[in-house]
Amino acid sequence: MSLDIEFDIPSWGNDNNESISSIDNSIQKKRKRNEEDVKKKIGNQTTKQNNKLDSINSNLQKKKMRKEEKKEEVTTKQVQSSNQKKEGKEKKLESNERKKEEKKEEKKYETMKEKLKQKIEEQRNQKKLSPLQEKMKERLAGGQFRWLNEQLYTTTGSQSFQTFQKDPSLFNIYHSGFQMQVDKWPVNPLDELIRFVSSLPSSKVIADFGCGEARLAQSVSHKVHSFDLHSPNPHVVACDISHVPLDDESVDVVIFCLSLMGTNYLDFIKEAKRVLKPRGIIKIAEVKSRISEETEIKKFTNQIKQLGFKLSSTDKSNKMFISFQFNKVNDQINPPKSDTKESSVLKPCIYKRR
After folding, report:
1. In angstroms, rounded to a whole number, what is the distance separating the alpha carbons of residues 204 and 224?
2. Comparing C-alpha atoms, which of 211, 196, 289, 278 is closest to residue 244?
3. Which segments within the chain are labelled E, that is strand?
4. Residues 6+ apart with CB under 8 A from 129
5. Longest dimension (CA), the chain
6. Quick check: pTM over 0.70?
7. pLDDT tens per residue, range 281-322
8. Are 203 and 209 in contact (CB under 8 A)?
């Protein structure tokens, strides 16, 4: 037996189709939203993970940097400590060396002290010289002075220079004897020359030919070039005064204070002419016994004139000394005659033997 069932299938209209399509669209939109949400969640999670990784890496780098800095600090401290140790050792060595040097100096000082005490004791223990011994000592010194004085007046300047260079002690012997003579003089011509130089402007340059111990240079504020056969102090340059170490026309005044002693004294004047500036001055002081007569004075001044000088003044007021002032007038030199008498107008100043 068969059952025939009939269904009434509703017929959908256009409206129903549209609703189905809208449902499908909404479903698709939801799906897209869900997918987007899932993607966002996944993206957020990955960014968070990346951030965590970055922070971990940065922390690791910081830790590494700190470790390196600590290592550097440790090494610098070690270097500093080693340097300090070295410096300490060096300081100890230096202090030890100083102590050794100080001990050496102390020993030297003590030995010098002892020697000085011994000398003082020896001098105290020595007997004083008797008047006769003192007289003999003075005569011996006087004899040495007279011999040297005679040598200086009767030989050339270069020969005297060689003699004093071979034995410099002769200079002290001569000047101690000379000083004994000076002490007896009522007037020292060097004092007059010091006053003359002091009256000149301080810009003037002076050359002292035969300066002795350079008292002139030590008495004035001017620039003074001091020359003699021996150098007893830093002011004096040892040389033959016929050849002084000065440039041409470099000085304003040349002084000869009892120093025209060599047989070739005219060479000294020529050298003065060379170093003097135009219209420069020569001051000469001499013992009257060397040129006592008027004829001798005239001959001597003529000699100087022929070498290119003009006589400015002559001072004969002192009983013992005579002084001259000449000015340089030209560069032409008319040498004096080669006659022996004419070329040796100045007589040697020789002291009598007693």
Report:
1. 9
2. 211
3. 205-209, 223-228, 236-238, 251-257, 276-287, 309-315, 321-328
4. 137
5. 203
6. no
7. 999 999 998 988 899 999 999 999 999 999 999 999 998 999
8. no
